[in-house]
């Protein structure tokens, strides 16, 4: 047998991809302490903490509006399965955290969906879990978004997107003239 055949089977590692956005990131540089260049390993029995206190948090956000410890992520295996997941816990007493519109108060926690958006204050974080098999550690891979992850939709500001028939006469223009729209067979034109 060759050394290749005798080598240990390579294990895939669960990776948590986190894409960060803040509207003032260009001028305030609140992400300057985050490593966007490479993946980082985190031991499975450690919590990945995010906040502004560098002595407690592994991932530091340089912003006085962020709590000392904003939130934590815990890696775990679901009971009676081989599935690995993450749990997110809000550790801020002042700021609520939302995960896909589920609001978490202080010390509330939920399982992190495979793909979700985490929001607190003006921060938006897209979290995506890439499955793996390793039980000893997981990896984080941080990314920086140039544009908002969630777009606020101001419906009254948007133009009406009603279909315009081929004859170019919009049903809304007929209604404004006091006429009601009628259906016409295209052969009658």
Automatic annotation (TrEMBL):
Residues 49-121 form the FHA domain. InterPro entries: FHA_dom (IPR000253), SMAD_FHA_dom_sf (IPR008984), TIFA (IPR033621). Pfam families: FHA. Residues 169-189 are annotated as: Disordered. Residues 169-180 have a biased composition (Polar residues). One of its GO terms (cellular component) is cytoplasm. Belongs to the TIFA family. This is TRAF-interacting protein with FHA domain-containing protein A.
């Amino acid at each position: 047998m060759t050394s290749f055949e005798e080598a240990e089977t390579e294990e895939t590692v669960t990776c948590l991809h986190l894409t960060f956005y803040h509207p003032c990131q260009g001028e305030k540089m609140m992400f300057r302490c985050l490593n966007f260049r490479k993946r980082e390993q985190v031991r499975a029995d450690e919590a990945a903490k995010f906040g502004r206190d560098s002595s407690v948090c592994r991932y530091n956000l340089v912003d006085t509006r962020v709590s000392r410890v904003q939130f934590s992520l815990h890696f775990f295996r679901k009971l009676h399965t081989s599935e690995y997941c993450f749990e997110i816990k809000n550790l801020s007493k002042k700021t609520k955290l939302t995960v896909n519109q589920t609001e978490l108060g202080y010390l509330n926690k939920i399982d992190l969906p495979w793909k979700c958006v985490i929001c607190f204050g003006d921060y938006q974080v897209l979290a995506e879990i890439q499955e793996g098999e390793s039980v000893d550690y997981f990896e984080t891979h941080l990314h920086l978004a140039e544009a908002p992850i969630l777009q606020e939709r101001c419906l009254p500001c948007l133009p009406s997107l009603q279909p315009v028939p081929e004859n170019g006469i919009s049903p809304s223009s007929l209604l404004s003239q006091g006429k009601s729209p009628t259906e016409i067979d295209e052969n009658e034109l």
